[in-house]
Each structure stands twice: as C-alpha cells, then as structure tokens.
C-alpha cells in the first residue's frame, strides 16, 4: 500500500509545519513569501561539460605533441607536407572517436583510466600504421615520427589526466563542479550511500535528501538539507533547483517505485535508482539485450572475442621469449639450489585455477626437502629456519616464480591475473574463503604471474584479515576492468615494483 505524503513547510531550525507548500513558494525569493527557505544551491559546472572540455584540451595537447615530434624531422615535413597533415588528422580523429564511443571508467582509479586511454592511443597508432601500409604510394609516414608520437602522446595523456584530476577535485570541493542531486527515500542505506557518493563521485553535488514523511532521522552534513514530500521534490525540480534525482527505495515495494517513477515523468531531470542489495554486491553492471528485453548483466565473461585471443597471444609469446632470455639464469638458480640442498629443484603445489579447478603450480624450491609445506598451513616468516640461504635470496628477488612461465605456456596461468592461492592459505588463522564471502569470484579468469594487487603493494604474508580483503578487492577490480592495455601497464609496474618491494621473504 502506498503511504500518504504530507506537504511540509520548513521553518528556521528545521521546524516543520503541516501547512500546504505551493510550488511557487519553493523559489528562494524573500519578496514573495515570509517563510524562511533554505538557500538554493547554485547550479555548478556540469560534469558533461567538464568532461568534454577536458577531452578538447587533451586533443589540442596531443595535436601539439604530434606537431612537435614532426618538427624533429624537418626533411620529412618539407618533402611530404600532405602526409604530415593527413597522418596527424587521421591519428587524432581515430583517438577522439575511440574516446567518444568507449565507456568511461567506472572506477575513480587513475591506473584503470590511464590504461583505458593508453589503449585507445595504441589502437589509433595501429590504425595509422595499417593505413600507411595500405596507401604507401599516397601516404608517406615517418616511422621515427610514429615512434616519437606514441611516446609523447602517452606523456601528454598522463599529464592531462593528472592536471584534470587535481582541478576537478578542487572545483568539486568548492561546489562549482557537479549537477545538483536530490536523494528521494530514507531507506536504511541512505547514510552509507551518502558516504560513498561524497567520497567517490565528482559528477554530483548532493543538494538534499527527501523523506516520504517527517518521521525520519538522517545523519547528514549541514549543507545537505533534509526535506519531505514528493510534491516538494517535483516542484523544486520544475523550478530548476535540481538537476538529477536518485531514488533510494526498496525494490520489493514495486508499487511505491512505479508510483514515484510515474510522478517524476513530469519534470525534465535525470532520474536514477539505487541498485538492489544483490546488485550492490557488484561494482559494475551493464544493460544487455536478451531478445526484446533489456536485462541487467550481473556477470559477464571479461575476456571474449579478439580481446581473449590477444591476451592468449601476449601470454604465450612473452612467456616463450622470457624463458629464452632467463633460461641461463634459471639453470644457474637450479644448480645453486641443488648444490646447497640436494633434491628436486622445482617445488610443485596444488593451487586454485580458473573456475576454481586445481592445477600444479611450479616454483623453484626455497625450503629444505623435509620442510616443504604443500598446503601452506604455516606462513613463511622473516628468518624462517625452513628456508635455505639460496631460497631466501630467490624469494626476496622473486626469482623463485620464474618456472611459472612454463605454467603460462601450458595454459594454466596468464602473465597478469589474480595470484593463485594454496588451498590452505589463511589470513589471521582463518581460511581466505571464510574471511571474504565472495572469494570464489576471483577464479573467473586464469590466475596470473603478477596482478593489480601485487603492483599496489598487496603482497607478502596475510597476517591480518584486511590483507586478503584488499587483495580480493583489487583482483575483482582487475577482472571487471580488464583490457590489454591494463595488462601492459601492470607488467611495466611489476618490473618497477620488484626493485623497491621488501615484503617478500
């Protein structure tokens, strides 16, 4: 049953009177009414305008970078001015088109957004190379210019991202960036919802929270007004004081939701609804067509089509080249292990793979034969007597992980993905799946030699429950935001991290 909505008049100090509130009384004009109305939040710079402005500045900066790189080769400019013009235009247009049609990153994480942008830039580079090859008689492009442009473009993309992040954060904090958002519904999640929006979203300035009745109590900052009544909300939206409305209503009250949605069709504002509890468990969702129906896709295979083939090709080719490159070093490490502690140089352990299926992971043995721990029941500590001298060195330098290149060639693992865990691995004496309810979700892709959690510094022993929780969150984020460019960024960051990380022993 629908609950009745009372029209409320706000007084100083948030006192409430039950006298009807007319739409024209909502406008903050003291000359028209004697009622003290909270000040109306000024309309800020729209997030969409800010985003398009940022893209335009990035486009101009990239054009300048390409022209600068072309100026390094004056002979080419003099001999092929038409090629310079068309090459630059096509390169920039392709990149701008990819940015325009591609989805915005769902996470306020610079690593993911940078990977997305670099991926677009590399795709545009590939397009210009293919075009130059196909029209060699008409478009003479300098290979050195392309190589220089790729590097300068990457620097420009990163620089624009850093500057725009700082600027948008400052503007949002001052209240001059973001559409005015009203939250309708004081369901039990509203305070948690407020906290998430204020800390993670720069697209909106939260203007007010609307309850259906006056009997509500919400802990909110003073600048966020607590108001009542759907009619009041519609009137303020019609008067131009609200840009977007977020419905925080229980999904099981379908009649209430449908009634509110029909009423909000009267006004020209964006209307959104908070996900159900099931959907809140997912950080990204998309709309998928299933026949004539629009459905909410809760889970999707992250690697499909050409992207999946590219990842397989990257894994196998890099693993094969790495084995050739590190082959002599691996033979030296194997000999050192055998000389110090005779026995098998490889340690084989059952780990969790894709679909939670077990596989045998290979590592260089770092412990004495009698002390090897197949189930990882006991964590290795600093100065652990079970670890040999050679083992301590290869664990600290991560050389013990090199045999996993063979696992990658076998198809058991990938270069990048969630690290495979042993079945007995624990955090604070509790199994990982006991600490993290959704722990199996990390097994939807192949485990990796390195991953997003590792480059963020979440490696080493899991002495506290928070250690595995942070790793799980990063693993899930990687699965949901996967791209080839993100893999490349993680691989480069892994190489850098190995020189500075001191948590492995």
UniProtKB/TrEMBL annotation:
Residues 1-10 have a biased composition (Basic residues). One of its GO terms (molecular function) is phosphotransferase activity, for other substituted phosphate groups. Signal peptide: none annotated. It is found in: Membrane. Keywords: Exopolysaccharide synthesis, Membrane, Transferase, Transmembrane, Transmembrane helix. The keyword Transmembrane applies. InterPro entries: Bact_transf, EPS_sugar_tfrase. One of its GO terms (cellular component) is membrane. Residues 22-31 have a biased composition (Basic and acidic residues). Its main location: membrane. Belongs to the bacterial sugar transferase family. This is Sugar transferase. It comes from Rhizorhabdus wittichii (strain DSM 6014 / CCUG 31198 / JCM 15750 / NBRC 105917 / EY 4224 / RW1) (Sphingomonas wittichii).
């Amino acid at each position: 049953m629908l609950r009745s909505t009372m029209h409320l008049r706000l007084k100083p100090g948030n006192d409430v009177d039950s006298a009807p509130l007319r739409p024209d009384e909502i406008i903050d004009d003291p000359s028209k009414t004697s009622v003290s109305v909270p000040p109306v939040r000024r309309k800020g710079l729209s997030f969409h305008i800010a985003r398009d402005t940022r893209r335009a500045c990035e486009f101009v900066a990239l054009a300048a970078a390409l022209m600068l790189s072309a100026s390094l080769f004056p002979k080419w400019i003099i001999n092929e001015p038409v090629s310079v013009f068309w090459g630059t235009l096509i390169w920039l247009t392709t990149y701008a088109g990819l940015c325009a049609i591609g989805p915005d990153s769902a996470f306020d994480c610079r690593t993911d957004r940078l990977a997305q942008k670099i991926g677009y830039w590399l795709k545009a580079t590939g397009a210009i190379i293919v075009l130059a090859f196909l029209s060699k008689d008409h478009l003479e492009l300098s290979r050195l210019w392309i190589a220089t442009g790729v590097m300068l473009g990457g620097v420009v993309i990163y620089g624009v991202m850093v500057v725009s992040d700082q600027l948008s954060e400052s503007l949002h904090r001052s209240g001059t960036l973001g559409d005015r958002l009203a939250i309708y519904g004081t369901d039990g999640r509203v305070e948690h919802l407020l906290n998430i929006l204020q800390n993670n979203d720069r697209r909106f300035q939260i203007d007010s929270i609307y309850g259906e009745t006056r009997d509500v109590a919400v802990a909110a900052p003073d600048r966020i007004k607590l108001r009542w009544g759907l009619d009041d909300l519609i009137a303020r939206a019609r008067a131009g004081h609200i840009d977007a409305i977020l419905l925080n209503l229980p999904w099981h009250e379908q009649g209430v939701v449908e009634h509110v949605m029909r009423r909000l069709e009267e006004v020209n504002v964006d209307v959104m609804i908070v996900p159900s509890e099931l959907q809140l468990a997912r950080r990204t969702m998309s709309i998928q067509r299933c026949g004539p129906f629009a459905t909410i896709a809760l889970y999707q295979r992250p690697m499909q089509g050409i992207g999946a083939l590219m990842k397989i090709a990257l894994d196998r080719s890099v693993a094969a080249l790495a084995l050739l490159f590190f082959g002599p070093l691996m033979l030296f490490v194997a000999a050192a292990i055998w000389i110090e502690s005779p026995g098998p140089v490889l340690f084989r352990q059952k780990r969790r793979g894709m679909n939670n299926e077990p596989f045998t992971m290979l590592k260089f043995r770092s412990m004495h034969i009698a002390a090897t721990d197949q189930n990882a029941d006991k964590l290795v500590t600093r100065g652990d007597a079970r670890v040999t001298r050679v083992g301590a060195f290869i664990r600290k330098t991560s050389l013990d992980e090199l045999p996993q290149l063979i696992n990658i060639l076998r198809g058991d693992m990938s270069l990048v993905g969630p690290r495979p865990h042993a079945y007995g691995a624990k955090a604070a004496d509790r199994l990982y799946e006991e600490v993290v309810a959704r722990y199996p979700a990390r097994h939807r892709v192949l485990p990796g030699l390195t991953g997003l959690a590792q480059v963020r510094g979440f490696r080493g022993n899991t002495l506290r429950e928070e250690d595995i929780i942070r790793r799980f969150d990063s693993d899930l984020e990687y699965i949901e935001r996967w791209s080839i460019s993100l893999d490349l960024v993680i691989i480069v960051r892994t190489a850098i991290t190995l020189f500075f990380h001191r948590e492995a022993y």
